[in-house]
Write a structure and sequence with these properties.
This protein is an alpha/beta fold. It has one domain: 3-Layer(aba) Sandwich (Mannitol-specific EII, Chain A), CATH 3.40.930.10. The chain contains seven helices and six strands; from the N terminus they run H-E-H-H-E-E-E-E-E-H-H-H-H. The C terminus is likely disordered.
Length: about 160
């Protein structure tokens, strides 16, 4: 599974200006609703419910909130680069400035896990994260996230 299968250009938020985890998840749910035509509140509740099980702040300034939803046909990603780091209760207690949210169909067992693994592998690459943090153009961020050389070398 490639990131271009998960992420569309309109799913990239280049300058998300939020002050809390809850607000970040609300804005991500809003963007996801506009892309998927699903209910914004249902998306937000799904992401928040997953956070209650344990933080999706994976460390090094990165969070990968995710959840499964009724009515979605295939995994969908939303990428956000925050204008200012926020507390996300990350496992390393560091604030988060890069969020890649992942939504999947309820019945997507292996596909959901493959998509999570793919996103995680990419965002473990410090060079990629540095480039993501250094760009504030949506098209440049989308290109970094989906270009084949990036995705194959991070695999």
């Amino acid at each position: 599974m490639e990131l271009c299968d998960l992420l569309s250009a309109d799913a990239v938020i280049e300058k998300l200006n939020v002050t809390s985890k809850k607000q970040a998840l609300q804005e991500i749910a809003r963007r996801a609703a506009s892309i998927t035509s699903l209910d914004e509140r249902a998306i937000f509740d799904t992401l928040l419910e997953r956070e209650r099980l344990g933080t999706t702040g994976v460390g090094h300034g990165i969070a990968i909130p995710h959840g499964k939803l009724q009515g979605i046909e295939h995994p969908v990603g939303i990428f956000a680069r925050l204008t200012k780091s926020i507390d996300f209760d990350a496992i390393d207690d560091q604030p988060v400035d890069i969020i890649f949210a992942l939504l999947a169909p309820i019945e997507a067992g292996a596909d959901h896990l493959k998509a999570l693994a793919r996103v995680s592998r990419l965002l473990r690459d410090r060079d990629i994260c540095e480039k993501l943090r250094g760009s504030d153009r949506s098209d440049a961020l989308y290109g970094l996230l989906t270009e084949p050389s990036t995705t194959s070398h991070a695999a």
